[in-house]
Amino acid sequence: MKFCTPRAQKKSRQILDGATCVFDAQGFEGASVDVIAETADVSKATLYKYFANKQDLFSACIERQCEVYSERMVTLSDVDGPLEDNLRIIATIIGQTFTSPLLANLFRLTIAETARFPEIGRAFYDTGPKSGTRLIATILKKHIDTGELDIDDVTLAARQFQSLVKADFFDLALFGIRNDFTAQEIEQSAEKAVQTFLRAYEVR
User: Fold this and answer.
1) What is the pTM of this model?
2) What is d(CA 187, CA 154) in angstroms, rounded to the nearest whole number?
């Protein structure tokens, strides 16, 4: 749902802030609209004016978190930096995003609810993994055009790069084994992913 006026945008952000906190703490099933409205400091009538139901609100929370990740990638897609530097920046953004306890928890909730509400899974996929892959592919394509990379399937390569970065920590974060990754660990994981990717695709 798009909110056109500044007042509507501010109110929707207020509701989403409250809802995200409640979903994160209580899960989708445990989160009541009453508690969400109270946390967001709005009436239930106001909440329902902006979001049709709890499912719609949850989808909007997911989309909002994924859009933060995409927006960071969009800013990078317009930068004409050296190949290795660009890859390192992308990898660091991926690492910081997927070690976020909030995102890991929302990811778990999305998986749990997708069987009942497939549109929630679709919303997460479209604004998260799919959008991220497309933006990374755009950046890779620039370096293919300059002759620095030799890639036949740029979309697949973008997915592979994301997987390389996440390999060290995503399962640990997803299953709640760790949620305290340091900046140094994320940087080290990013560097290993970059070097592995370059060995596979860089023109030498």
Assistant:
1) 0.81
2) 24
